[in-house]
Amino acid sequence: MKHQITLGVGPVSFRIGSDWHGPIAALDALYHDYPRPGFADYSVRLEAISPWRRWIRPSIRVRGDYWLPDASPLPRAQGLLAAEMGMNLQVALGHRRHLLIHAAVVARGDRAILMSGVSGAGKSTLALMLSQRGWRFLGDEFAMIDPETGWVHPFPRPVSLKNESLELIPDEYRVGPLLAGTPKGDVRHVAPPTAAIAAMDEPARPALLVFPRFGFPSALGGLAASETFVRLTQASTNYVAMGEAGFRTLVRLRGRIPAVALDYPDGATGVAAVEALWDAL
Amino acid sequence: MTAAQTLVEVLRDPARAMAIDLTRWTELLTVARAETLAGTLAHRLEGLAVPDAVAKALAEARIDAAEARRTALWEANRIAKALRPLAHPVVLLKGTAFAAAGLAAGQGRGIGDCDILLPKPMLDHAEKLLVDAGWQWIKSDPYDDLYYRRWMHELPPLIHAERGRMVDVHHTILPLTARQKPDAQALIADAVPLDGGLAVLDHADMIVHAAAHLFADGELAGGLRNLWDIHALIEERGLEGLEARAARHGLSSTVDRALRLSHALYGTSVPRRCRHLTTTDRLYRRRLMARDGWGRERHTALRTAFYIRSHLIRMPLPLLSRHLWIKWRKGKAASASG
């Protein structure tokens, strides 16, 4: 394609091609500290929905090795969001090297907390806030569990913060442009701390599993092994596709680490609760 | 050399993969995925010293293929169980058949729907048994449903409510509207039984079916994979009886075209008369290779021509006109209401 870039994030590499320069320049800036590998596992295309829509009311269609036919096009100004969506989709639909669980992951040394939840549960915000308090940021989208070792591999993509979370962005973090009026509201991407990117090939051992829920009165509950298992299958995008390896990996994860459901009213309370859980381990 | 050409070259001669640089590998993998040949490529390259990053991606394609095979065989098992009251073997077609029969053509192959063949008089009963066992119709539209039942060579597709897998129940291998009339009774009579109430087509019939599917029933999208099926079938078990069998089904020229193109692209061992491409074959080859290193389809005009052709060969012009007219009016009505 006319413009392109390759990006390495943890164990995965992407090639993003675009009919426009803008989205590639935005990726180049946001992913400043990430490697530019020669080979890419997945290709993403940001293409005009028709030849003339490259120029007139430019509209981006996201395609790639894997894609969903019903995804709506985005205006050119939201090219970075389109690229991020495309990259997410490749991993969610194509990745088989690790069991994927929708979770944010932070670590102290080589021991990690997995925070799994649906969109809006606050896992990204919690991970970003913890990264300011000395925790290593391993990712806010997918926990990648190695079927051989059971360890979680970093996949430290930039965090996408939405709407009211935007004010939480720390000053010293590298950010992308403010994308107003996207299907998800106002969005801004925040690159993880340089140290987290530099350590993106160092896996960690899962030590605690938290299911956070933002916007509820503080509450803490233990989870039965059976419920943890079902929640994890629901949070995984490739559990079925991984077959027996996925099942074995999930059983081992569930059996090894404590799991708690955590309701919290605001970010600061959530962070304090997570750190208290950690200290009690 | 285009990425599609590289893919064909490497499938044909895996040793050529050693000369590929990393950028080219990215393109090769992308085009292989777009042509649903990634698993096949990964199997062909197994054991070769490819770059580490590439080896990891190929290993994933093998995981996918193994899972596709496992689910396809389980689905065939479930279908055979549901259809046991027919007291007739369920003849598997295409990918599921290759996997069930343990053929080289099945190695690494992606498998989508489960295609099966049954004697036409049993179709109504089979449909009832499948619906009783949890399959549902997808086509809710009465015209589509009627069209399938009157003109197609299969029941309207059924999907299993829990597993989400589709089954296509055929009673022959080409639409009833097509000019060629394959001998469906012979296909079923000569099928080779397997365990578990299943069967697969006789070797020569498998090749005839693959050729019919590729050239007499479609627009050639994903044709490189279908042509690879033909190549792998021939390389594993030869050409014995193929000429006579193709003639019996009225598909001699279709099979010969498949042999010529398979030889030209993959180097298949074929009779001397099939070792040169005709002018028309070259258009087919161009259509088969119409994909770039980003996985995008190329040659819009040529693809459109093959798309129109796919309709013309499926049905006579008056019927086609009526069909397109109804489809167009329905499309307009749908966009006006939606």
TrEMBL record, chain A:
Highest taxon in the source lineage: Bacteria
Keywords: Kinase, Transferase
InterPro entries listed in its UniProt record: HprK-rel_A, P-loop_NTPase
Keyword Methyltransferase belongs to the record: no
GO molecular function, one term: kinase activity
Xref: NCBIfam families: HprK_rel_A
Annotated protein name in UniProt: HprK-related kinase A
